[in-house]
Amino acid sequence: MPAVPQNQGPRFGRNSLFFWIVFAFLLAIVPVYVVAMALNESGSRSVKKEISSSMQSRARFFMGTLEQELGNTVLLMNNLSQDSDFQKLGTIAPALGRTEYFQAVERVQGKMRLLQSSNPYITSAEVYIPQIEKTIRGTTYVEPMAEKQIEAIRRKSASYLFTFEDKLQMGLVYPEYGSSGKSPNFAILVTLDRYRVQEAMKQAVGGSGGAVLTGNMIPWSVSESSEPAAAEIGDKLMGQIQAGSRDLKELSGKVMPVKVSGTRYWVSAQPSDKLDAMLVLYAPERQFLQSLGMYRFIFTGLSIFSLLIVLAFSVWIYNRIHQPLNRLVRAFRRLNIENLQQVELHHGHPDEFHYLYEHFNEMVKRMQMLIQEVYKQKIHAQRSELKQLQSQINPHFLYNSFFTLHQMAEMWDIDNLVLFTRHLGEYFRFITRSASDEVKLQSEIQHAQSYTSIQTIRFHSWITVEWDPIPPGWSNRTLPLLTLQPLIENAYEHGLKSKQGDGRIEIRMTAEVDGLRLSIEDNGDALTDKQLSGLKDKLRGPEMEGEEVTGLVNVHRRLQLMFGGQSGLQLTRGLLGGLRIEIILPLEEETQDVPVADRG
After folding, report:
1. Which of 245, 249, 343, 377 is deepest in the core (most CB within 10 A)?
2. What is the rounded (10 degree) CA torsion for 372, 392, 438, 424?
3. What's this model's pTM, rounded to 2 decimal places?
4. How does DSSP classify residue 475?
5. Domains of the chain, start order
6. Spatial separation of the C-alpha atoms in residues 439 and 454, rounded to whole Å
7. How confident is the model at residue 247, as a pLDDT?
8. Residues 161/182, Cβ–Cβ less than 8 Å
9. What is the C-alpha to C-alpha distance for residues 441 and 355, in angstroms, rounded to an integer?
């Protein structure tokens, strides 16, 4: 049988049916999975966008409301600075009559009450008039305003707010551009209630998280949060935000992630030029992503479940389809390398593979029967060829032998006559024996030596034959009958046919690791490369019905029949210049159980 590549059959490679089934399953499920991931991610982005928009809207609304309230207060203070009562008391208070003085003071108190009630964040409103060395409030008089307080009002920036002794205040001095060493006509001061600002910020936050309102140039801040460390978190957030952007206007309308103490926060910053401050709303990310987290948990669970389904499907495919199919492929492979009697498949499930296995077993049995029939026919054919070879006596060899006998008898060469007839008798006795198709190496060599002795007597010194001794342990090695003599005869009849003298035949025997190497080589000069190639093709070619079987072909086929398809004759051009024929006799244990499929 022709040899088959010694692979292991398809398993999990790209050419495997199992691979393509799983690939098709994944091809069907992966797009659905990808679409689900895309929808989940799109929903997540949509929720984040809505949350960001909500935080930005609340920050803008609170900052706009605060700017409007404080702007109204600043406008009212500016109007009061132009009020006639403020101007009189600030410039000509000593010149006023008692009645006019008290009426002016009473009207100023009323206006202070109006100023205090004009803004929900104001906790107190007062005006200091140096001319009367009094600070007037809505209902009372207090001691004169401290110089540090007046200087704090003078040094305030263009913004509405400033701080003094940790108080958040608003104010103005009149005249505004007076020297710092000179007392103003009057100074209006408004103090804001931090608690009320925090309450307003709490409404802007709306839930867990916090808010920080802080000055940009002057360090002040108001923080609010339901968390106990709100102020600390707010300060850290402000530090990180301001470190990342010098231009605070760039932060307007943006929501950014900030990490503080291992917790991620979403931060919305809203700066204000009028207040020279910035409002920061922040909330822990987990607050907004709780619902998304639940969906992600469900999606992760579904992903794991889908993966388990894929694995279970793969295992099922492997057990029910790939494994039986792979077993069938391996069985087909073993048909070429094992005894057919050992190749039999069984399947426990009544499915298509059970049907295939049953018919495979039937096919193997039929193949076994056919191979046995072919093998028996081949044996008979080889034996017939052997018998034919045994019965074929070269007529030239026969009549030349008789002519040689006649010449020796005429010349009364009794010694050579006795030797020649003995070799001739041994030769004919050996080729006519039919008890067995196999012979020991020693007997085969003795027969071949009888033949070469006959030819040596015939050709005298024209052709010399050199024999190597049999290596130790190889004398009893069996080989097909009439193996060496036909090869030596080929050297006489074809290799040395045109030689007029100095003919040489060497028979070498070398014991090697894998067996015994026998070679028959002549020094003939008639062999061409084309003839050598034709001989090789004839040995490699298939056996054709009705073809004439030569001695070389017969020996080659019988060696393959006995020792396997890798055995036979190897033809090369020898070192002597003629044809070199090699035979490898394998070790005994290598040929005890040659599979039927490998014999020939």
Report:
1. 343
2. 170
3. 0.47
4. T
5. 372-598 (3.30.565.10)
6. 21
7. 53
8. no
9. 52
